[in-house]
Amino acid sequence: MEINKRSVGTFYENLAARYLEKQNVMILERNYRCKQGEIDIIAKDGSYFVFIEVKYRASGSAGFSLEAIDHRKALRIRNAAVYYLYSHQLPEETPCRFDAAGIDGEEITYIRNAF
């Protein structure tokens, strides 16, 4: 079951990455992990480093995809982003943005500055 969930997650993360590339967003890393948390996609949009959470729901029975990003999840992503910037020796004033890609069925909802 866990392998199946991971492969489903990878499929929809790939879909989100293709969507972003069509918007001229450069993908830098996928599934970045550190002790602070995980970031699904790290990208560059102009001068901004963009940290993106991707959520998928096949149907609305478990709620909409973007509803799954609660304040604890957002905090873990922010903490992982801080570590990413530090470990890549990027200055504190590096412009950053936290976006979310929600995929419900076949529909992608992309929110800039989601949290």
Task: Compose a concise summary of this entry.
By secondary structure, this protein is of the alpha+beta class.
Structural class: alpha+beta
Q: Tell me the series of helices and strands, N- to C-terminal.
A: HEEEHEE
Q: Could you tell me the strand content as a percent range?
A: 35-45%
- Uncertain parts: none
Helix content: 25-40%
* Rg for CA atoms: 14 Å
Mean pLDDT: 91
| H/I helix tally | 2
Strand line-up of the largest beta sheet = 1-2-3-4-5
Strand element count: 5
Describe this structure in words.
With 115 residues, the protein is an alpha+beta fold. Helices cover 33% and strands 37% of the residues. It has helices spanning 2-22, 71-87, and strands at 26-34, 37-45, 48-57, 96-104, 107-111. A five-stranded mixed β-sheet has the order 1-2-3-4-5. The model has no long low-confidence stretch (mean pLDDT 91).
